[in-house]
Each structure stands twice: as C-alpha cells, then as structure tokens.
Amino acid sequence: MEHTAQDEAPDDIPNDLPGAEAETPAAVEEGAAAGEDSTPAEDSAVVEDDAEDAEDVSPEEEFRRELRLQPGHWYVVHSYAGYEKRVKANLENRIQSLNMEDYIFQVEVPMEDVVEIKNSQRKLVTRVRIPGYVLVRMDLTDESWGAVRHTPGVTGFVGHTHQPVPLTEDEVFSMLAPTLAPKETAKAAAGGSAPSTPIEVEFSVGESVTVTDGPFETLPATISEISPEQQKLKVLVSIFGRETPVELSFSQVAKI
C-alpha cells in the first residue's frame, strides 16, 4: 500500500522548529512596543490624578490629618493671664532639663490676628486667643504630669486634678487652626481686603456717645448697630422727642 507525503507527516509539530522561533520574537517585540506606548500615558494619568487629589485637600483638612498622626494627646493647663508666653518658655526649658522629650512633645499658646480700630485708625495686632491657658501635647504619665504641673507659672490642668481629660480633635482644631493663617492674609486684613479677620472697635451697642460732626453735632446718641468693616455706626438721635436712626462714621462720634 502506497503512503503519500501527507500521510507520512507527523501528527505533532515540535515547538522548537525554526518557523516557531521566527514568529515568537516578533510577537514579543510587538507586545512590548504596545506596552511602551501605553505605559507613559497611564503613568501621566495617575500623576495628574494624584496632583488633583493634592489640590483638593484644603489646609484645614491637612491640619486635621496632621493632628490625627501626631503622638500623644492635647491637654490644657491654667496659667496667669498675661504670662502665657513665659509659661510656654518655662515648659520648653523644663522638658529639656528633665529629658522629657519622649513624653512631652509640643507646647502652644493659641494666637490670633485682630484688626483694632482706635481713633479711626486700623491697626493689626497679634494677641493671645485664650488668655490664661496653654496647650500641651503629651503622653500622660505620673512623670510628665509632674513636669508640667510644677512648671513655674502653671496653676493646674483643666479637668480633674490628677487625671485631666484630653481635648477632642475638634477642640484642638478650633483653638490652633487660627494660628495657621498666613501672615499675608493678616496684613491684607489691615488694609481692609480680608473681612474674615476679627475686628475690634472701641464702641459697643447700647453705648451713649456724642455726635461731633454733621447736622446733629453736639447731640447725644445711643449706638444701635456697628459695622466694623465699613467703620460705620447706626445711632439713635432724639429729635423733637422721637428717636431717629442716623448712620455715622466712627470719626463723627465721641465717647461720653
């Protein structure tokens, strides 16, 4: 019986034939080229997404994140009003002299920038936000408690005498966040371009004043409204037995 060439061909083709070797590198190179084309685009997209995420994080949220990652808890100690900064310096010196750096991490006196208006002049001042109090971030132990409690100028912890209660995250944020405001913002406030900065005035609602300028000059008046940003007052002036509201500038009235 005769066999054809087709019948004599083996059923299985070895993987190491020259033809197979010729095709495999080409396929690999093509796949690699495709991978090289897509990788930079994907990396660029990831970088852009990360940049957008970073831009979306507000300074307030970033500060909260830092608070969560910091070791220890925040406690409040009493001090004599007007001696807060001195107590802070005393505490920091005592931490070093007693080698308490591993237990007491940070001491802060909450500050704020305030625009004061006196004699119609705006002046930016930095003052203690909570007079008589100092914040301390620490791990509470008998030793760290004693180091803080016996610091000159400290009159005690807020809360239980020997077991003070730490502040919550929201409490710490509300006390320390104002100190994060950039100085440029505060300076802009002095020029009147940042209305969010607190403004103190020398007048108060219900106070009696004397009108010093305008048609009602020399008449007594009572302050009913104060607009610090506009440096305006709304006062009640008694005219013919009736109280009439009049809007005046700070410079048009004087304290009695």
UniProtKB/TrEMBL annotation:
Extent of Low complexity compositional bias: 19-44
Recorded superkingdom: Bacteria
GO biological process entries: DNA-templated transcription elongation; DNA-templated transcription termination; regulation of DNA-templated transcription elongation; transcription antitermination
Transcription regulation as a keyword?
A: yes
Q: Which UniProt keywords apply?
A: Transcription, Transcription antitermination, Transcription regulation, Transcription termination
Q: Which InterPro entries match?
A: NGN (IPR047050), NGN-like_dom (IPR006645), NGN_dom_sf (IPR036735), NusG-like (IPR043425), Rib_uL2_dom2 (IPR014722), Transcrpt_antiterm_NusG (IPR001062), Transcrpt_antiterm_NusG_bac_CS (IPR015869), Translation_prot_SH3-like_sf (IPR008991)
Q: Where is the composition biased (Acidic residues)?
A: 45-60
* Domain NusG-like N-terminal as annotated: residue spans: 71-179
Q: Identify the stretch(es) annotated as Disordered.
A: 1-64
Gene Ontology terms, cellular component aspect? cytosol
User: What family is reported?
Assistant: Belongs to the NusG family.
Query: What is the protein name given in its UniProt record?
Result: Transcription termination/antitermination protein NusG
Q: Which organism is it from?
A: Georgenia satyanarayanai
